[in-house]
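Example 3.2
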Amino acid sequence: MSFIHSKVFKYFKNLVIGLGAAVVLLGALAKLLSHPLADMMLTVGLCTEAAIFAFLGIIGPEKDYYWEKLYPGLDQYNSRVNPLAAGPTGAVDMPGLNGQVVEQQLGGMLTELQGMSKSLGSLKALQEVDFSGTGEQLKTMNNFYTRLNEAMADLTDSADEAKIYKEQLSSLNRNLGSLNSVYGNMLNAMSGPRNTNV
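Structure, written as tokens:
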């Protein structure tokens, strides 16, 4: 956007035009009242106005807005004026612009905006979640998993020890069985027929 079309320039232009006109009017009043500064005030005011009008002629007019394109029939005296979103207005028909189509498109945009609003609401709710205790919870979970791993290792060691203990018990049972058979043989040998000499 150029400086000529900015709000600051428009304000400055109106200010200079207003002050120049005020000086011209005061100069004319002073001339009517035969004031000694009347000639100088009229000269300054008219020179200012001449410069302003020359400047306005150089920069060109403001942009015109053609409202009759949006409101067909606005430039006709007795026409019924409806915005294009309401559909054609009888005599003036604008091809390609249908009120229902525009309403459908606006409805689709409204649905998308509502979806975006819900998504932004969800993000805001996530932003408001308090994660201050999360570090402590993670430490507790880490401690739990460490102890669980230690317990599993102890169970594995216990299983290995139980297997060894079972093997030792089996070996002991075999040895006891052998001892029992040896003892039984000894008992049988001792309880056998005795020689009696009478």
